[in-house]
Amino acid sequence: MIKIKNLTKGYEAKKDVLQNVNLEISDSCVFGLVGINGAGKSTLLRLIAGVMRAEQGQVFVDGEKVYENERKKQEIFFLPDDPFYASGVTARTLADMYRSVYDFSEETFYEYLGKFKLNEKLPIRNFSKGMKRQVFVALALAIAPKYLLLDEAFDGLDPLARLVFKRGLVKLVEEKGATVIISSHSLRELEDICDSYGILDHGSITCSGELEKDLTKLHKFQAAFEGEITKEAFGFECLSFHQTGRVVRLIARGDAEFLLEQINALKPLFVEEIAVDFEELFIGEVEARGYLQ
Amino acid sequence: MKKTWNFLRFELKKNLWAFVVLAAVCTIPYIAQLSTMTMSYTYEEWETGEHIVRIASSQIGTVFVMLGVLCYIIPILVYSFKMSKRGVDGYYSLPLKKGKLYLAKTVLGLLLVLVPYTVAFWGGFLTLLCREGNPYAMGWYVPAYFGGVFFGICLFGINAFLFTRANKAGDGVVFMIAYIPFFWMLYAYFIQVFDLPYSYGNYEMDLFTFGGLIDFGNTISYRIMQYANRNFSPLTFVVMPSLGAIGYFLLFFNLRFEKSENAEQVSESWFGYKMLIPVYTAFLLALNSGDLLSFCMFAVAAIVATIVYRGKFKFDLKWWGMIGGALALGLFLGLMIG
Prior knowledge:
CATH architecture of the largest domain in chain A: 3-Layer(aba) Sandwich
Strand order of the largest sheet of chain B: 1-2
Radius of gyration of chain A: 22 Å
Number of helices of chain B: 13
Shape of chain A: elongated
Strand order of the largest sheet of chain A: 6-7-8-3-9-10
Distance between the termini of chain A: 37 Å
Order of helices and strands of chain B: HHEEHHHHHHHHHHH
Number of strands of chain A: 14
Oligomer: heterodimer
Largest sheet of chain A: 6 strands, mixed
Number of helices of chain A: 10
Helix content of chain B: 55-70%
Largest interface: A-B, 31 and 31 residues
Strand content of chain B: under 5%
Strand content of chain A: 25-35%
């Protein structure tokens, strides 16, 4: 289990990247870490990976501090958004490097290199962005760590590679009981595989929980009215409100029947409830905090 | 330690070609030089008309120069990972403590310096042995080799520490170069204050960061040429080994204070620009004081250096205070010279 307690981190240029972050991530789950650009997702992942030291607070993995903890870091693999490789390095060289410090499955590595149709002997610098990502995905899955941290996990991957990757992650969680933390802006991809999520906003976790459960707490309605109608006309707080002519789409939190009663009280021409997805949950949350208005 | 050893083994394997290329680059020109050089020459004594045979230099200095150059290049290759955000993410996320990671990198760096040196040195030795009429005292090559190894290790330690004070590779190179005459400059001021001759004690060479290596190379070269009229300076085995030991100690000791997020940021180390700019400004001004022109020149140089250091034209009052303070100190130190 990953437990983050009162974590604070700042840089010279930006003092308040993370402020008093508290979060618990249970074992054997896929956790989606989302937030707008500059919210502090990469910094949080680096702190969990033990790359950085926190100014205040701590990251505990299975009850142990991570920073400079070689034994605990053995169970963690961090794949940053722009992973490091030296000039002229091949996939084989990287595999050798990770094999020198991690338990490494050559079989899994070659299985995924085969799936992605990558040549292990070519210098990585000649690969496209997506192919580079595929090499590191193959390495991550070959290491099969207990905790896998992925920053901008799907960035650059084509739909087929994304599918292979997601299946690999699910297999890792199911077979090895791994915990995967994924930061991504592809919320539809995250929704496919995430059990739980956390929204990072202005350096703090503003919302977290089980994804499926939280999605049922939100309700999205589409309704048409005779004339234009304002957000304030509804007797409840809208997390998201969009109006196109006489058609209104809104997302609100609360009891579905109560919300429907309130909408019906405004005498709509029609009203229907639509399923809410992760992206809408995220947008609803960040809009409620004053962004993207 | 098993993981450290595994990681080092990986690094050695990865750098196999670097070893081969560096060894070739050092050995081929050195052997070519030794194969074609004149080993002795005859000149006519102008008073007596007697023909005297003199032994020419064994050119052992070439291999020491190569060793010295490697001690400046290899720290850049080995430690520059910590100056990129990607490198920091890649290496610091590995399940190795920073101390062990740096130990592996330092051993790799030392081997990248010493293996090409060793190949070139003994390649040169064999070349000389094969030459007919070799006039050199070849027995001195054994202490010469180990002396080179010793001073190479010292210089690598000094440069490894200086280079890793920077957050950008370019700054690291500046630090390594800027410290070369740093102690010599302080010494030059000292001998001016006390009105001592420039060559007082013949210490000046030892005070350069690579001075011990050069002084050792020169002295051993004389021994190889069978001239006994030059001895080691007492500081040869003091200054550079001390600086090397301090360099290694601080390289590892400072890891606990290092912030990985500083990669690619302005280099704020107290061993870097923060000290170099005011100290150089003050002492160079003191050594060249006396007219308004030199004052203006050093003031402008200090401002330009601060602009380069901060990476912007506009900087806080404290930096102006630092420049002003350094100039004032320079004037004061200049007055001490008189």
